[in-house]
Amino acid sequence: MRSSARAIATGVTVAAIATSLVVGNPLAASAATYPSDSTPPDLVSLLSGYDSFWQSSGANDLHGTVVGPATLAQNDALTSWINQHATAAQQFKALQDSEYENATNTAYDQSSTVSQGLGDVLEKAYVQGRASGALPLTSALINSSNGTSGAYVGTGTAKAHFSYPRPYLPASTTATLPAGDDQVGCAPTTVNSSSVAPNRVGKAYASADGSLDVTRVAPQTDTTKEFSPNDVVLDAGYGTKGICTGGSFPSGHTTTAYQAGITLATLVPELAPEILARTSEAGNDRIVLGVHYPLDIMGGRIDGEAALAARWSDASYRTAVLEPARKELVSYLETACGTTLSKCITAEKPYQDDPYGGAAIPGGTAQVVTDRASAVKVYQERLTYGFAKTGTTGLPASVPTGAENLLLTTFPTLTAAQRTAVLAQTEIASGFPLDQSGSANGSWERLDLAAATSATVAVAQDGSVKVVSTGGQARVLAPAATPTPTPTPTPVTPGTPVAPAPVSDPGTAGTVPTGVHLPVVSG
Fold first, then answer.
1. Which of 102, 172, 298, 504 qualifies as a FRET site for 227, CA 20 to 30 Å off?
2. CA proximity to 280, closest of 296, 263, 295, 258
3. What's residue 32's pLDDT?
4. Rounded Cα gap, residues 76 and 152, in angstroms
5. Which DSSP helix (H) or strand (E) runs through 426?
6. Angle, vertex CA 167, rays to CA 203 and CA 220, nearest 5
7. Is residue 22 scored above 80 in pLDDT?
8. Whole-angstrom Cα distance, residue 155 to residue 429?
């Protein structure tokens, strides 16, 4: 957890707060209250697969040795393409997604921007509820500065361990920085990408000295009032010391985006696939700005998944924090909309996106989102970004312990084992970068939460489950009733009275067996 930026502003400068946030470093944590407060996920362990591509110097100086040249080359190529092909509208959204709440509480953060996944009507209600103070439990839970789930884990230790240079850093130690950059804190003599330059020289997406082709997105002022009643200056912060010297892997912004996004998706599971797709967009927007690579985004997603699984697996925290916030939020949204959540969702315009103006990303699609099915597909594509497999293929499912609790609100009637089975049947194949299949950690990289939260699940008489389809409305099908065997007629001697055939009780035919409770599925 993080202490409020407003509360500590009297003792810490606004610049210090901003630096702490942009590099993914939590502000001072408050006293532990719940078991999971003192046992956050070990991000270095969860992301250790990155060591097979890059070995840092160990001095947290952005220098080291390339050990997976092909994977890092693909990482570079995708980064440059995404940065160069994003539309102007997507660049603006990327700047919005880079924002963190400031010390005067006049801006916003990713726990607001990812709410576009709620759809146009519910997003407006949610943002208004957050701004007016009508959602205190939700805000305390989800915000990206000090939310108990939205800011549960920080990436400072992991960034220092892996210490990989950001995409926009020059390769040359004698490069001239743009005016306005911190000429001392970001001085190319020490802050550069020279260690990876040899892997880039001669590539179409790099300059002659090995600097990656990345264009900075200029600062803008957000006057839309969509997330704040104020005009908010948006700046990617390329030239600030906190950004230029902060390791690229994993992405801190993506980590907080997924902590906020998965939190919101579990509070409003009816729209989980769309919220998750919007969250993946927030991560992708870090590549749009040229401050991160796809592998950084994949790492940030893993961070967020593990963080929220830890929170939902903490029974005390779940009961005292998550469930009350869910009740508060759903009640507020239904009151604001004037009808049931399902009817609001049916009537509103869903989340949509077209990041590259219809152009297809290398090895993938244009990642256009128009409806739930496309949201699920885009989310899945961003699980791997089309990387070539680097690990063992064909391995069985490897669902991490606790991950099943991310489906508690989507499938409240299923057992833990059944929810695990849903995750196992919807996860992607093994072997992609950062996959830890078969390890003690399990594979967070393979989890496809958008597919799992949009699954139609059939439950058999023996309790086993089968995912029938994904990309629709999450629901559980009733077990098929076991037909009563028809007895073989007994030969009757002529003249012997025949007893009438027994009549089935019309009140029991086709009912669900005792002990199996099905959720009410909205139209």
1. 298
2. 258
3. 59
4. 30
5. helix 416-426
6. 125
7. no
8. 27
Q: Cis (ω within 30 of 0) for the bond into 250?
A: yes
Contact 234, 221 (CB under 8 A): yes
Give the span between the Cα atoms of 261 and 275, in whole angstroms: 6
Beta strand spans in 129-255 (E):
220-222, 232-234
Task: Find, among 247, 273, 57, 26, the residue nearest to 150 by Cα.
Answer: 26
Q: How far is CA 149 from CA 98, 122, 286, 305, 315, in A?
A: 19, 21, 21, 11, 14
Q: What is the DSSP letter of 206?
A: B
Per-residue pLDDT tens over the stretch 32-50:
599 999 999 999 999 999 9
d(CA 113, CA 110): 5
DSSP helix/strand/coil, 233: strand
| 8 Å CB contact between 1 and 151 | yes
Q: Give the three-state DSSP class for 232.
A: strand
**Which single residue is written with the structure tokens 């065997």?**
485
- Token digits for 3? 């202490």
| 400/50 Cα distance (integer angstroms) | 19
Q: Residue for token digits 């080291």?
A: 64
Q: Which residue has the tokens 């884990």?
A: 153
Q: For residue 499, what pLDDT is reported?
A: 38
Residue 181 and residue 186: Cα distance in Å, rounded? 7
* Cβ 408 vs Cβ 263: under 8 Å: no
Q: What is the rounded distance in angstroms from the CA atom of residue 187 to the CA atom of residue 191?
A: 6
In terms of DSSP H, where are the helices of 39-108? 43-46, 69-85, 88-97
Q: How many CA atoms lie within 13 A of 358 on its CB side?
A: 0
Closest CA to 449 of 521, 499, 382: 382
Q: In the structure encoding, which two tokens stand for residue 399, read together?
A: 């669902």
Pairing of strands 54-56, 465-469: unpaired
Tokens of 154: 């920080």
Task: Please compute, for residue 266, the number of CA atoms within 13 A of its CA located in the half-sphere on the CB side.
Answer: 32
CA-based nearest residue to 163, from 173, 171, 153, 155? 155
Asked if 362 and 78 touch (Cβ cutoff 8 Å), the reply is yes
What is the Cα gyration radius of the chain? 25
Instruction: Note the maximum CA span of the chain.
Output: 112
Q: What is the DSSP string of 306-371?
A: HHHHHHHH-HHHIIIIIHHHHHHHHHHHHHHHTS-HHHHHHHSPPP-B-TTTTPPPTTS----B-S
H or E segment to which residue 302 belongs: helix 294-313
Q: What is the pTM of this model?
A: 0.88
**What pLDDT band is residue 478 in, cutting at 50, 70 and 90?**
confident
> Is 80 exceeded by the pLDDT of residue 502?
no
SS3 of residue 163 by DSSP: coil
Among residues 390, 347, 258, 272, which one has the least CA distance to residue 311? 258
C-alpha dist (Å) from residue 475 to 276, 307, 309, 348, 398: 18, 26, 21, 21, 24
